[in-house]
Amino acid sequence: MPKFEYQATDPEGRPVADVIEAESRMMATVKLRRQGLDIQRLEQKSERPAPARYSPLYPLRPVSARHLADFYAQLAELLEAGVPIYEATESLKGRVDRRLESILAEVSPKLGDGEDASEILAKYPQIFPGHIRAMLKAGETSGNLDQICAAIAGHYEEEHDLRQKMRLPKLYHGLVFVVAMLVAPFPWIIARGFSWYVGLFLTVLLPIIAGLVVLVQAARVVAAVPRVKDLLDDVIGALPWLAPFGMRAARARILETMYVMTRSGGDLPTSLNLAAQASGIRPMDAQLRIAAAKIQGRVPVEQALADCKALTDREKGALSTAQQTGLYEDALRRLSEAATLERRNIINKLVTGGLVGFAVATAVPVAAALYFAYTAYINAIFERAEEWMP
Q1: How far does Cα 288 stand from its chain's mean position?
Q2: What is the pLDDT of residue 376?
Q3: Phi and psi of 239, rounded to 5°?
Q4: What is the pLDDT at residue 390?
Q5: In b/e form, how buried is each residue of 344-362, taking b as 16+ CB within 10 angstroms?
Q6: What are phi and psi of 368, to 5 degrees?
Q7: Is 258:134 a contact under the CB 8 Å cutoff?
Q8: Cα(49)–Cα(303) distance, rounded to whole angstroms?
Q9: Where are the alpha helices (DSSP H) in 224-327?
Q10: pTM recorded for the entire structure
Q11: Residue 246: what pLDDT?
Q12: Is 185 exposed, middle or buried (CB count within 10 Å of its CB: 0-12, 13-18, 19+)?
């Protein structure tokens, strides 16, 4: 039977730290609460954690957002219908992406033994990153895993929707760029022949295009390296306008995680600590953990959240009011719904901004192509002038 390490306080406020055996994290939570303990930390004990599988080439061909959305949506439906998670994962074999199916075949027996999905899936950090596992952990702890899976599915569905809306503009402006590269040397093609252009394409244009493709793919690989990602998180934390969708998605994950935790009776510090992991952005994680420690030390919510930039002033004000009324669940439900709506609205703004950005980006090479086409046309006339003169 799995063992869980915990830290808690007893009804008299004294700290307690020990190990408990239970079929799952949920059952361990139930047992501890029956003892009247206020849980601060509950982790599954593992003697030999499985090494993570990390492929540097995964960013070049990741599991698509659409496949992940389908996986979590189906899992949410099965769990909501009362199907145990072991049977749910077994049922999904053959219905999901091939890479997800191979993972399910490996983790399903462990789920049947009572291990937590959030712990098992740590072996696959690229497909199941830390912020997703934190949300799953919140669902397991609170007993609302179906609700969390539905929320994760919504996140991936919106990410897929954003990429789909940006695909056509990217294709259009890419074609414009290619045409611009043909327009510039066109007069020389007429003057010097098509064989000259083939040589130009093979020796100059093709290496430039290939180099740009390699640079873009290399950037994707480097950006996924954990240390580089941490650095990018720091930059985004300081300049949130660089990744508006990512920041709003992170805030939505934070508030959804806090909501499901408070809905099940979890205290605010525990909810904040799990929400910190669910943010997926290091500066937000650190800010929320500091706030959680202050609240646990009996600092009022308003003061504890004063320097926390992970939440907006409106959200911090609502949580401060909730401390006075005791209605954290209602406040977080409203905030979670508002953050989800805001995350959806940003997609339309990003698409509009993307169209303008692509138009500006392609205007430069098009203008340059027209200029060089004009100068090439004049030069071609001078090159052939003697042949055309009587």
Answers
A1: 18
A2: 64
A3: -130, 75
A4: 55
A5: eebbeebbeebbeebeeeb
A6: -65, -40
A7: no
A8: 39
A9: 226-238, 244-263, 268-279, 282-296, 301-304, 313-325
A10: 0.76
A11: 84
A12: buried
Q: Give the span between the Cα atoms of 374 and 183, in whole angstroms.
A: 10
- Closest C-alpha among 132, 104, 147 to residue 260: 147
CB atoms within 10 A of CB 135: 28
- If one counts every other C-beta atom within 10 angstroms of the C-beta of residue 37, the result is 19
Tell me, what amino acid is at 248?
R
Query: What are the tokens at 388?
Result: 């055309």
Torsion of CA 350, 356, 358, 360, to 10 degrees: -150
Q: What is the CA radius of gyration of the chain?
A: 27
In 3D space, the residue among 25, 31, 23 whose CA is nearest the CA of residue 44 turns out to be: 25
36 φψ region: left (φ > 0), alpha (ψ -120 to 50), beta (else): left
Residue found by looking up tokens 């179906």 in the block:
146
- Choose among 345, 369, 360: nearest CA to 169: 360
What b-and-e string marks burial along 82-94, b requiring 16 or more CB atoms within 10 Å of the CB? ebebbebbbebee
Please report the pLDDT score of residue 82 as a whole number: 92
The rounded distance, in Å, linking the Cα atoms of 374 and 187 is: 8
Q: What share of the chain is helix, strand, coil (3-state, %, to 5)?
A: 75, 5, 20
Distance separating alpha carbons of residues 44 and 58, to the nearest angstrom: 28
Q: Which two tokens stand for residue 142?
A: 């609170």
pLDDT in the model for residue 259: 92
pLDDT the model gives residue 295? 92
Count Cβ neighbours within 10 Å for each residue of 18-36 and write b for 16 or more, e otherwise.
eebebebbbbbbebbeeee
Three-class SS of residue 126? coil
The CATH superfamily assigned to 64-152 is Type II secretion system (T2SS), domain F (1.20.81.30)
Total number of residues shown for the chain: 390
Low-confidence ranges of the chain (pLDDT < 50): none
C-alpha 225: how far from chain center = 15
The torsion angles phi and psi of 21, rounded to 5 degrees, stand at -95, 135
User: Dihedral, CA atoms, 275, 276, 280, 283, nearest 10 degrees?
Assistant: 150
Greatest pairwise CA separation for the chain in angstroms: 110
